[in-house]
Write a structure and sequence with these properties.
The chain has helices at about 45-55, 65-80, 95-105, 135-145, 160-170, 190-200, 210-220, 225-230, 250-265, 275-285, 330-340, 355-370, 400-410, 420-430, 470-475, 505-525, 530-535, 580-589, and strands spanning about 110, 115, 120-125, 150-155, 185, 205-210, 230-235, 265-270, 295, 305, 310-315, 315-320, 345-350, 375-380, 380-385, 435-440, 460, 480-485, 495-500, 540, 565-570. By secondary structure, the chain is an alpha/beta fold. Strand 11 (about 310-315) and strand 12 (about 315-320) form a beta hairpin.
Length: about 600
Amino acid sequence: MNTDPPRTPPKSPPDEGGMATTPTTASRDASKTPPTVPRLRKKDVEAGCEQASRNNCKIDRDENELVDEVLSGMLYFLGDKKQSMSINQLNFDLEKTMRVTIRSLKAAHADGKWVRGKDAIEIVAGGSTQNGKTMIKKSVVWACGYLGVRVILISTTKRGTTSVVVKLISSNQDNDAVAMPSLISLSCSRRVTNTIKKILKIGGGICCHDAAARIEQIAKAFDDDEMREIPTVLIVDEADAFYRRYFRDTRLEKAMKALNESVKPIFRLSVSATLIPVFLHLKQEKKEIGPDSIIFTECRTNYVGPDSFVPLQHNGKDVFFDPDDSEGPEKTMNLLYEQAFQKKGSLTLVIAYRIMERMHEEAARVQKSFPHVAALIITCKGITLKPPLTPMPGLKFDPITDDELQQLHDKFKQQEWTVSDVIELVDKRFQIETPLAVFGYFMMIRSDSFVSSKRVPDFLICKLGAGMSIEKLVQACGRATYQRQSSNYNIKDQKRVTILTYPQDYDTFQAYPRFMAEIERKLRQPGVKLAEALSPATSYTHRANIKPEVQTRSVGQRLDALQLNVNFRSPPQNEVPRGRKWLNEKENS
């Protein structure tokens, strides 16, 4: 297949019949309100129903011909200024993604009708944190919309789901012929059941956060024969977060089961950087994943990931939180603060305090010692800005008034404002050279990105409680991963992130993406099943050992009682992980 598609839109553009489309977001200006999540437009219902019916007919065409057409349209949609994107610009196999999507849909279509199986086809998508998995979701949503198949997307937290929707609908092509289908976020809908039915009937998609009540409402919407005939796929973002308890299902888990039973999706796409709990549950349910149904992003040279994270240094030695220290972490954290806040344009993420009051106290303590630092506090109640008390030496900006600060906080309460939008605003209001610290806990573990067009994380403090799982640890540390861009303020600096965490957590964070890469390679081998890849007889390298002896965190939620029973080889003496080496030196001192 030609990987350099024509520089024009596809001959059979999607949505040409008047289906509701989403606005483009060609540029992001921090002085303006970010793009809003679109609402349903009633005038599109009749035209949308007719168009969705026409699109359904496309699925009967030849697979290769359909893949070529969908791929061409998708690359144009992802492009810029009426130019198509090259397939080589993406860090995942887009052609394979389109083929497995179309093949799964064709398998559920016979004699002009959609046929539901007992179980949905399982597709998984993964890769390192902050490394482009949104593009996988975007391509699947676009392809399904093009073929008249509806999408239900479930993610975590209201703010996280809004962030996902904004990323999905964004495009640099001002052309309705290649627009995404309408994506309606239920967090902004009042008449929920009617909204669900109308948007799905016209060929749109539904987005919802992990609230059991909302998911139950989606399931309830499929209570009549007309709705059950609508072809639908289910995308579960941050999929590992939806498994909670082994001995008795939570309301969320019951709602997800009800959703699967009522919707009967053609396939289920599970997306996460931390897929081990998903694999273990599929193994328990005796479900399998075909080698073509595994889609992973690859880490390219511009990606700053776990391999680029280095422990805090003091007097030439690694510094970690001491697991046996009872004096409190402030003294150790000060070592990192002294390095971080002397650096112009630095971004420091602090994920250490569960209680909101402690976050505010720590921000105040930082600004007392470093008055030139700006601070953001991210909680379930929203985003709080603590402006710098004085400019950094050599900088000038107008002091912020109480009225201006209140107006900003009122803006931040809008769900459309992502953390990246707020960081962008801080960069412009107080200048990019001003060091910025972001404090949070639960709201900083998943979904959100902590970068602006110029500022990227330089320092990370991650001190999670003992009850937090390995997956939450990896996701929390992953907030400081990113893809370098030429616009980054510190692009000439060595690409690395300085981290302060527990020694065993550092080793686990380093090992997790290596384990994911190794299990992906095993599952791609012909005939290898999940049960075999996750058995004690299967060997993994020491570099992939996410559960060293000193690591007491659980795989998946603690109450889910998952066990990863595989064999990790012992490391050579000269390749002992840095965290384990630090613990050995501590024991011998």
